[in-house]
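Hey L., structure's done. Input below.
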Amino acid sequence: MIEQRKIELLAPAKNLECGIEAINHGADAVYIGAPRFGARAAAGNSVEDIGLLVAHAHLYNARIYVTVNTILKEEELADTEAMIWDLYREGVDALIVQDMGILKMNLPPVALHASTQMDNRTVEKVRFLADVGFGQVVLPRELTLEEIRRIHVACPVPLEVFVHGALCVSYSGQCYVSQACFGRSANRGECAQFCRLPFTMEDATGQTIVGPKHLLSLKDLNLSDRLEALLDAGVTSLKIEGRLKDVSYVKNVTAYYRKQLDAIFKRREEYVPSSSGKVVTLFRPQLDKSFNRGFTHYFLSGRTSDLFSFDTPKSMGEEMGTVKEVRGNFLTVAGVKPFHNGDGVCYVDSSGKLQGFRINKVENNKLYLQDMPRIVPRTVLYRNFDQEFEKEMARKSAERKIALAFHLGETAFGFTLTLTDEDGNRVTLSFPGKKEIARTPQAENIRIQLGKLGNTPFGLSEVEIAWSDNWFLPSSLIGEWRRQAVDRLLQVRRIVYRRPASQPKRTEVAYPLSELTYLGNVMNSKTEAFYREHGVRHIAPAYEKQPVREAVLMFCKHCLRYSMGWCPTHHKVRSPFKEPFFLVSTDGRRFRLEFDCKHCQMKVYGTDKESD
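Output:
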């Protein structure tokens, strides 16, 4: 018999509506921001809303993970602990955390997941996290497939990997540039999106190499065609990024990945979904219809040249065709996809800047505009807002149903109705009643009445009628029995649902390092006590607590020297410019670049004004 492994599709939710639609469109789990202390400060949710989402998700055996993944100030510890207890009482399945001080709190028996903000890129770090009580570990986006496989083989803990969405150019949890420049800490959920800004790159003599361009802005991750390889490498949870995205994005992207995974499960019996119910979508999911900056596999198969989006940090959408002719108030377009009235269109102009317009009216291949932009023939057009698709997304767009079998039997004094769902939960109700022979066959009407499951989470799979004769039952009576039995089965599903267990927290395990610099993000006394308990002797405070002069502010796998074709390892070509290189922002700040070839990464150092 094949040993099966449960696979989790993990979707984001910025609010209750997004969370419910993520479940309805096929998510096995949803991650959502706590009222406070989440790594997206703008995506907090009330405890009450999280409780409503938990109730909906658990009907399908889907899980709710709550992000409490910022580093905590001393004065926030008590509030955090109280909030965790409130979340536990609402039934959440796990907390995604960054601050190790949480492990020193008086916690309920709730499962803990290690946020990618912990910088979990090595076997030693992941093994330590498993040993001290984390039930799941979120890996960095920068890892290759082989690195993921090595961690899986060496570490007895479920691994969570991002498969879709925006990419941070710095290793998560190791980016301090937003704090340094704007007083807004990424480790506190307040990232200022520094990496999406334009920069000019200069050499040591002040000569311009390139720019102004969005030199740190990456394309969006899309591993939808590599899911099977990730599963084979040992990944258990496949995570979609997007806790600030709207409900249309959540519906479309979740449904797309659900279809991809279900197709794999049909071929590979060893992989099964971790929740219940079959999703029927009422639209065709298409990833290029939702916000994206273009797509990349990032470093999954090693370093490639398709990572960045230097022209713009904004969504380009789907390529539609090219401009053939510009006339008065309309354009003629050569393309294979039809436009719609109200569509949003963008293009890159002759100076390399992103421009856009809204279509008033479409007639065949003519696009009529309110104001004609400066655009020339052969310009490539992209649609970044599809009016018809968004209308489709605004309506009900999916149904998720748990398979339900009915068995209608009889006793000496009446009838029995047994319901069995796809997870093996079963209820049997007995109904006393007089038996009368029907004048016409009853089987078809019974199936129709039992199948009226409406807004319940169930869908009819089969009906078995085990009677000694063709007994008559009024339709209203069958409907009433069905309602009673379904209500009882829903109660059973809620009762038998089991949250993942919290893991034992071992204190004798040594942390892989004996010294922590500002990169350890130690913000409070509980975090310091945790690391000392695990053998760390020298502990520096977090950058947010005590800024470090000449600190590395970003650690990037993305390398501008490689992007320019001057990597000594891969291209073996020497740069014609004098190092060190600098990034210069539009307000005159200069950031020195250092290329660490030993670790194959680019470091971005401190700032000062150009005039300094």
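The chain has 13 helices and 30 strands. The mean pLDDT is 94.

-- N.
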